[in-house]
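IS66 family insertion sequence element accessory protein TnpB
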Amino acid sequence: MTTQPSIVAQQVRLRQWAEQIQSCRNRPEGMDVETWCSQNNITKANYYYRLRRVREACLEQIPETPAFVEIAMADHIPAKSPEKLPAMDGQPLLRIHNRAGISIDIFQDMPAEKLQSRKV
């Protein structure tokens, strides 16, 4: 069983580590992590340990049950040659990224016919 003072101490420590990690990420361009760590009196291994612990703490805050949305596929979509979309202004309404580095931006004013799914 974890006591209340140790939980508070752990939260304070994680907050301090998160601030250090943010500071490292805002380091001057061209400075590597090892140099930043040396200037801030921590080892590179300790920095990555703290980074891992902060990430784990953040992941614990995310609900465990993922939500899925079913997207219906059209039975048949005629083949068309790819066309360029006009440049959209402003921030996307929805941005989807995958691990392969592919991202999709959907804007508020994007025509519905451009959002059709296609069977491959």
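thats it. Residues 4-60 form one domain. Strands lie at 94-97, 103-106. bye
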